[in-house]
Amino acid sequence: QSTTSTKNSGLYDYLLPVLKQDTGLTVNVVAVGTGQAIKNAMRCDGDVLLVHAKASEERFVAEGYGSMRWDLMYNDFVIVGPEQDPAKLRQASTALDALTRIATSGAKFASRADDSGTHKKERALWASAGIDPELGSGQWYMETGSGMGATLNTGIGLGAYVMTDRATWIKFGNKQDTTLLFDGDPALFNQYGVIPVSQKKCPTVNAQGARVFTEWLLSDRGQAAIAAYQVAGKPLFFPNAD
Amino acid sequence: MARSPRYGNLPNDANMLNPLLPIRFHDLRLKRRHRRVLDNLNLLIKDPGITVIMGPNGAGKSLTLRCLHGLIKPDRGSIALGALSVADSQRQQAMVFQHPVLLRRNVMQNLAFAKPEADHRELIDALTAVNLDDRAEQPARLLSGGEQQRLALARALLNQPKLLLLDEATASLDPASVLLIESLIRKQSQAGTKVILISHDQGQARRLADDVVFICRGQVVEHRPADAFFSHPESREAQAYLAGDIIV
Amino acid sequence: MARSPRYGNLPNDANMLNPLLPIRFHDLRLKRRHRRVLDNLNLLIKDPGITVIMGPNGAGKSLTLRCLHGLIKPDRGSIALGALSVADSQRQQAMVFQHPVLLRRNVMQNLAFAKPEADHRELIDALTAVNLDDRAEQPARLLSGGEQQRLALARALLNQPKLLLLDEATASLDPASVLLIESLIRKQSQAGTKVILISHDQGQARRLADDVVFICRGQVVEHRPADAFFSHPESREAQAYLAGDIIV
Amino acid sequence: MDALTEAFRLIITLDPDLFEILGLSIRVSLIALAIATVIGLPLGTYLAINKFPGRRVLITLLNALMGMPPVVVGLMVYLMLSRSGPLGGLGLLYTPTAMIIAQVVLITPIIAALSNQVIENLYQEYRDTFYSLGITGSKAVIAYLVDARYSLTTCILAGFGRAIAEVGAVIIVGGNIDHLTRVMTTAIALETSKGNLTLALGLGTVLLTLAILVNGAVTAVREFAKRRQYA
Amino acid sequence: MDALTEAFRLIITLDPDLFEILGLSIRVSLIALAIATVIGLPLGTYLAINKFPGRRVLITLLNALMGMPPVVVGLMVYLMLSRSGPLGGLGLLYTPTAMIIAQVVLITPIIAALSNQVIENLYQEYRDTFYSLGITGSKAVIAYLVDARYSLTTCILAGFGRAIAEVGAVIIVGGNIDHLTRVMTTAIALETSKGNLTLALGLGTVLLTLAILVNGAVTAVREFAKRRQYA
Ligand SMILES: Nc1ncnc2c1ncn2[C@@H]1O[C@H](COP(=O)(O)OP(=O)(O)OP(=O)(O)O)[C@@H](O)[C@H]1O
Ligand SMILES: Nc1ncnc2c1ncn2[C@@H]1O[C@H](COP(=O)(O)OP(=O)(O)OP(=O)(O)O)[C@@H](O)[C@H]1O
Ligand SMILES: [Mg+2]
Ligand SMILES: [Mg+2]
After folding, report:
1. Mutation choice for ligand 1 from C142, C173, C178, CB with most ligand atoms inside 8 A
2. Fewest CB atoms within 10 Å of the CB: A18, A56, C158, C231?
């Protein structure tokens, strides 16, 4: 089980053949939102969890579903929006400033609103900016309740701002007149974790394969492979396993 | 029109054994759209042989036969066939409808459908009896009107019923087919099958009937031996019917 | 059986003007499943009045009428009605089928469907003419067999056709209805409508026919004035048919 | 079982969000169904009773369009209505109207193809009589529709089922935007993606209950009318 | 237009991924269709020709189940097959078998409800004759199915359309795993979420072409048989 963002970024298509070469392991990827991925794993429908929502992940481990959680890599979020940039995001200094500009300018903002890691991050940012976007739900705050790609499609169709992870954005095919308007604030960094599902809770789990997969990801070979994955000349993920 | 010789239909041993006799309709009542289409109909058919039902259009002849065959449950009243109920006797009955319904298959398959265990020879014989053996492979629904009627009759006879019900079964047949069918019916009757048929054709009724039941407005108005009925109809309605006058 | 008086059907002025006469079938040929069901059929109907078509089951009578009405295109040959083709004359024709198809509506609506512009009075009159006025509100498909046939006839007459085709239209009528319908047909014919009807009923044919067409195996075998046909049928086939013998 | 409890809870607490979403679902589906019926029934009938070259091809195409993936329909409507698309000026994207358009495109072929079959069967029976009475063109179409009215309800109910259950197309053109274009099916998809399976199943149960009620009502009316009239 | 070019490119380059996905789509849909037909046709027929208390309720339910949201079906099958579910031991989740199961659940009611209507019409005509000939039970069911065979193809094609176009259920139970459970519709959904709309539409065009081919073949066979036999 994995989140959609890693899947859509094409990372697996690059990593899995290398993994196969090194270990002989074949991995099946089920890409769903972080929330669904965790719940699916709680039902033992998955061997390894690769998601990005640290708090939920730690609860997953604490409740005994996962044996152990490791930091794997990070990437960062960016805010994209229409070329004309009605909220003047290009001039924003911080992420909080950017969100405040959107909220006060009357421009639209499309949120995934699906309990995904991205959505949780976005909600945390709104909270620290002291804004409750729910009040504008359906007027300027568009809760699409969809995956990253679908939300981008919707946001672009609406001429709205969208917060997305950089990887998905770079590979996204339907950009039309939407462009990257804000990035670089460390508040937008996004930590991915990897958790093998516990054999105690789920006796049917492929623990052997899970361990091999996890160890390979955390090994120098794996970390190097992650760093080497580039799209359009840019690295998308930055390995940071300890 | 040439008349075929009138065969006697005297009850013989086989007839006496017919387990579906006597047939007794008791106070049959049927309502359709606030109209009593069968109105306390009483009828007792004791004897074997051929009973012809006559009566004006809409009198309730077809409905009566359908009740007897179990296709319609009357609102009130009862029907008994010998010691049997309608349901228990149904497998020993066969019926040919006013507008026969043939399956979307060929002539042979239509027959085989009614008697799956029959072998080829038996089916061909049945077709030959109604002069349709050269149509065996033809789609049944593309037969001419008269051919369809003959096929329906062949199908009804296939299972050697003890009671054969015919609702204007010769209405669209040519004279030769009419005589052919009539002789088939007579043969069947002599072999012990009780036959009840509806007909508007007085010639046919005179040729075939042992007794005539005259139905009018949902009631049996007259039930007498054929000779008596045709020579001296008793009821005003039957007199008018035979004379071709309109009965209200 | 009582005979209604035979009316003369002499051509009067109205008849002479019928634009659909003469009706000419030329070398009509129709194949169905490798069998020639119409086999170079030639027929010329010059006179107004009532033409009766007779012939054994499966002879091709219904198919001939269907070709004339435009329901079937013959494989070869032609049909002309006066100066008109089948297609051009079709709106002036009406046909009553062997098994009439009624709509899933009530009796009144079935009539109104054929002539939407007719007012209530006209429809009631048409129903009264076939003795069905008390059935106006009843679902047409629940009528008895004979009642359905009468309704189909009323529907066909509603638009005052110049050519009326009847395919065994009285086969399931009671004697009174038969006479009623026959007098309707006769009236229609005297008013200038050409009538062609198929019938197996020799009594009816004698009562109605001005001329008789005898069809056998897809060909016209005999076409003569009615009196001549019934007193001295010329062809072997017609002799056999009238005698009730099987024709092969 | 949990799903049933959840559905029950949602209904008896008169959850306002639920009723907003449910209301929109019903509105969108019924409007789309009405439009698709008005187009599909005469179209299917016309193709059943008129012979012309290419008729078989058209019927085959209709049958094939029953297998049109909703996502593809959604994308096509999206591209039409998107700001850079030909109808972008109307500003219809992400409105209930867009969802209705997508559903009409989806279910019209279904209603047309199914009614085509129903009418074709009736045509076998009525053809000669209608020809003889000179009933052609739109008069014939209407007559067939009237006489097949009871059988056609099943075709329409199949269309309704597809409309009310449909998610792939409406989520693309509607966007599943809360308080604007969120309907039952997109809400179910959302709760599923959040992992709230019980809530999702609860919503599904509510939707299914709605479908049963609608179908029950239609069947009841139909049976009543049938009995008062006749088959 | 771009979509057409894209579809054309995918096909003429004999893209191996495309053919793998296409093959799985066809396999899953046809197997599901076969199973749903074997269950649905006799079921619909049985309900059309047998009177028993609750029959109307069952038919209404079948009609309503045509409106079963695919996501809900997907969830139910998911919960059944999940490793912690009652059938978890079989290890079927995220396999083509799981997708077939979900599709069978989805399309059996469609085939049953539509065939029910077709057979009910035939029943009006055959009822008395069958009763008179003593044809009941499974013999009657088979006879009705045989005699309605041409009309029933439309019901089956409707089921096929739904199966081949379906995405909501198969993505949940299949998981859209590359080289394992990815079918055309889930691939289209994936490309859409990546914003590759042209590719998505191209795949959609390929799928639609397939649907047209299948429908064309069925129609042709049916017309041929009809002409050799009769309606
Ligand atoms: N389901 C029904 N609803 C209403 N009226 C009906 C129904 N079935 C039959 N009737 C009426 O009942 C009467 C008797 O019908 P039935 O078919 O028994 O007549 P019949 O004696 O056989 O006449 P025919 O000689 O014309 O066949 C008819 O007037 C018919 O209209
Ligand atoms: N579509 C068809 N396919 C094959 N055979 C056909 C078709 N239509 C008619 N026939 C055959 O053509 C012959 C003539 O049929 P038609 O209906 O004209 O007979 P008919 O003279 O009206 O007989 P009847 O008095 O029995 O009504 C019949 O043998 C019939 O089986
Ligand atoms: Mg009758
Ligand atoms: Mg005929």
Report:
1. C142
2. C231
